[in-house]
Amino acid sequence: MTETAAPAAWFFLLLAFVGGVYVAAFSFRFFAYAALCLHRPRDLRRRYGAWAVVTGPTSGIGRSMALELARRGLNLVLLDLDAANLRETSDVIRSRHAVKTRTVVFDLSLVGTPQGDVAIRRLRAAIEGLDVGVLVNNAGVSRPSSVYLHEADVEALLRMIRVNLWALTEVTAAVLPGMVERGRGAVVNMGSASSEAIPSFPLNTIYAATKRYVAAFSRSLYVEYRSKGIDVKCQVNTTNQIPHPATNEFCGSYSHSVTSNRVRCAAGPILRGDQDGVERHAGLLAVAVRPHAGRLRKRRLAGSATARSAPPPSATSCSGASPASCRTPRTTGSVCATTCA
């Protein structure tokens, strides 16, 4: 009887130990999340500088980030391809907050062309003499999505590469010299769960590859510039959006899933230079770039990728718009390349 009871006791002790470890890990993650949201925000203006540059600020995450930076007292240089949207966003920001704004019309898909070179020179001229302390590389495109590589339009793929990869690099190179000269700054690059949270992302191969570049670029840039007082972080965005079956495009912007109040909570740890690692919070996953980081630890976000390929509830519904109105490409704001009219 005693011999039988001994193994059973050890089994329950082991089970209790495993359960205790799990509860402790869960509690740590929960309290870390709570601490990030309740932590007193850092004075970004004092820490980094008086101005911030935001690409793709007219919709989704980019717009919310721009508004949050303005709320924290930073003046803004806004880059987007649509002059009218830039004016509207700039007017909204200045009407809500006592900050200055500058706008630069820049079609990021034209980098590497004469028009793109002119736009880069306009950006350099716009920030010359400004105390630019924060750069948010937010603009990106995801079209074409949910398509076999051999069936995708080559020009559309090249456009994606130019915006997600080439333009991000050129804009960063244009802003960094001033940060180096002043010995402070922060660069926030928008990554994607498609490259960091799951091992592969079929039917979105080029998009995932460009975002893998963003992550590797951010890691190396952090090590390269940390001695110069510049913080670099790559933020991984998640969404439960799904592509419209008729257009293979993500309908709507991130506005419905990432609102200003959520970004208000998220922007602290994303932009806080003293944070060395944060968990998923407020619908966003900020991945700190560590000095000797290898592969970032995979998060449990497989459900997010599954949701993107799941059939929508209605084949014709697209945020209240018809499928035909969801076919206008844009390079503003979020991971979405298009938004419904």
TrEMBL record:
UniProt keywords, alphabetically: Membrane, Oxidoreductase, Transmembrane, Transmembrane helix
Pfam families: adh_short
Residues in coiled coil: none
Alphabetized Gene3D superfamilies for the sequence: NAD(P)-binding Rossmann-like Domain
GO CC terms in record: endoplasmic reticulum
UniProt cross-references to InterPro entries, sorted A to Z: NAD(P)-bd_dom_sf, SDR_fam, VLCFA-Steroid_DH
MF annotations from Gene Ontology: ketoreductase activity
Spans through the membrane: 12-38
SUPFAM superfamilies: NAD(P)-binding Rossmann-fold domains
Bias type Low complexity, positions: 302-326
Chain spans, region Disordered: 300-332
Origin: domain of life: Eukaryota
Similarity annotation: Belongs to the short-chain dehydrogenases/reductases (SDR) family.
Name of this chain's protein: Uncharacterized protein
Record organism: Digitaria exilis
